[in-house]
Fold this protein.
Amino acid sequence: MRLSASVLLVSVAAGCVTTPMPAPTPQPVAAATQAPRPKLVPPTVRLPDGARPTGYQLALTVIPGKDTFSGTITATLVVDRPLEVIWLNATDLKPTAATVRVGDQTITATTEVFGEHFLAIVPSRTVPVGQHTLTVSWTGALSRKDNDGLFQLKEGDEWYAYTTFEPIDARRAFPHFDEPQFKVPWELSLTVRQGDVALANNPVLSETPVEGGLKVVRFKKTLPLPSYLVAFAVGPFEFVDAGQHGQKKTPVRIVVPKGQTGEAAFAAKVSGPILEQLEGWFGTPYPYEKLDQISLPVGIGAMENPGLVTYGHQLILSKPEVDTPGRQRSFAGVCTHELAHQWFGDLVTMAFWDDLWLNEAFATWMTPRILEKWQPTWGQDVAQVNRRHSALGADSLVSSRRIRQPIVSNDDIANAFDGITYSKGASVIGMFEAYVGREVFQKGVRAYLSKYAFGNATATDFLGAISEAAGKDVATPFRTFLDQPGAPLITFSLTCPGPKAPVVVALEQKRSLPVGSTGDAAQQWQVPVCVRFSVNGKVDRACTLLTEKKAELVLDAAKGRCPDWLLPNDGYDGYYRAALAGKTSLTEVFKKAGVKLTLPERAGLLGDVSSLVRSGDVDLSQALEVAELASKATDRYVLGYALGLASIPGGELLPEALRPRHEAWVRQLFGVKQKALGLAPKPDEDEDTRLLRPGLIGTLGWNGKDVALQQQAKGLTEAWLKDRKGIHPDVLDTVLMLASETGDPALHTKLLDAAKVEADRADRGRLLGALAEFSDAALVRGQLPLVLTDTFDTREAMRLLWGAAGDFRTRAQALEFLKANWDAIIAKLPKDAGAGLVWLAAGVCDESKRDDVRAFFDGRSTKYLGGPRSFAQAMEGIDLCIAWRARQRPSAVAFFEKQKATVEKPR
Ligand SMILES: [Zn+2]
């Protein structure tokens, strides 16, 4: 649809693409001859209408290691009303020249920067309606501390430049119309050192040597792309060929910094097969010409730039001798997510950031759809239940966003990248996929992608396509989840009036809110509800669409007989919390239904129990009984929930005198299992057992305070410091951190000395992670200043501060350090990192400290992009924690007072 824009790309000012920078020759800025300047009122969030681009030619000179870069952009424009000013987005760029070409005339223009996001181009005369070109040149700083925009970093002895533009950081590299609906072809050229490799979304068209030891690398014109998906990288990269894959035999490569090709084997093995699985599901080929997957030495995320997908190095690379199933599965999951974006987001792009869920919720939902077929043993069904569980937790905050939150400020754009968009969005999609049936849903998705290919779309477009495929209105119930925050808590009351009379389940919904919440429970949704039940051992299901506050669901298949048990969320596809009214508790369902429940259902049930404890609807002591039951499970998923439930009374919840009882209880529940598994896998051990081991060690070590295990961890750590084969990679991070948690000054010195000379980023990260776990006050006080020195990159050293803030014994020290050094820390961190620092206080759960925390962060973290909502959420979390502790402490105390302290002696 929007492809037609490319035909407008004509009569572009010559020379700006092929000539090395600075190019073209800057036109004189015509301030002296200009007509009186109109009064300029900058936009607030979005650019005004009147001009839109139909294509860009972008030329940049990027020399990694230098402090600045420069560029020239030529935009072909459609101007649909006479303009005295053209507004562009630009951040921290210094414009050096600007002209507008109207027919065969070149109009000079002045430029003025407005605030952080806008650049006014003021031509010396009014630009008439028509098709024109706008050319702007600029210089900018090539940042050494940022992870977004165009930035550089040193790996080994070499400097590399990378880009990360989503959502609004492309404007830090070049001035342009930085909104996703401007989806147009890009012709990029990079002037780089002759010895460097230059990469971009598309393959190289030509390389031309120029003066000064440089070369101009021109790339093939792209398909229509929004600017946030434009990407390039410059440096002495090396490649691992991953073959040609899929319907168009797309060439796939893994791109790494010099000397790291030996770490890309797994990524090279799985990227192509994942691409092929996705093509199979979508029924259409990968839309772009090549697929480079590039390692980014900082950051932990990934970015779906078409043809040049970036991944944090820990995700995509690992030395084979320390690789683990956990790391490999993480990469496969993220790779599937990023490659799903090539359709959801890249091929069809949201019209604006309020519909980010059309990108992120879909790529998140798609990941298990692909993995469950490609790797059926990876437990993707349980992974979906876990994801739903975490989303419901985030959604219980009053300060939670909607999936489709209106964008009234740039903060809203930054906040859109949260668990609500990703995990709630994916869970809601999964619920409606189950509601209409998987095949129907797939048909709807395919129709939507085909209709809006290479263009933009909105929620209405998508929901229309699904409703059409389903032959019923899906949009109305779906929107009740899309356009309001929160999630329903549905209470199920089973009535068995007697023989032959219909068995009825009464349903009643309200908003699920935790104890202490100030939220209004009187919200309603239209919820697809399915229950499962058993009558005399025969299992059946019943479904309805709950559209009102109350409704009744008749269990026809029960034929008048009272069910033995009722599971209130069949398959746990429903995005709602469930509570059973009357005497039957979820615990009893867990006991009675037992193996008749699927693994995801058992996980879902345990998740609901944990949430009801959080909401105050269930006593913590009940959840601890469930933990005892679940600790007998043999699968790692149910055991994982058992470990989680058993850890709830850790930290400060119990009075000090009772803490040893909790620790002993944890050892009783899990000690035998952990000892049997040991600290390293046995030969030919299955992956599930390997993945369970670190969690067991962690829970026994931290919550069980198992002294023997702590000693073992210290011994292994000493061995590892001498020989990096001393700890099995599966448990490496866990063992290092456990050793440090009770570590002495001698161990601290050894770890710190090792970290200072460690050249490998992964090992340096591990060592800093271990240092972050020390709980000794003097050691923590001594190491926090490393955040401010140049011993480590501050982005890496911040782990020390996060570690201290995450432990109630050292939290006060961490917050004091932050308060004393706020400005100095901010100065060393990436732009806008200040917004997230409020989460350092997230563990505070004490009325006496709350106001102090609020007073400090209000006006500080709130100044940065996304800061106000993060601040509100962190503060709400503190209030809820205080209320929760007051509600559940008596129950926990009663539980552990009843416990016989049989194993109070540490073992
Ligand atoms: Zn994504």
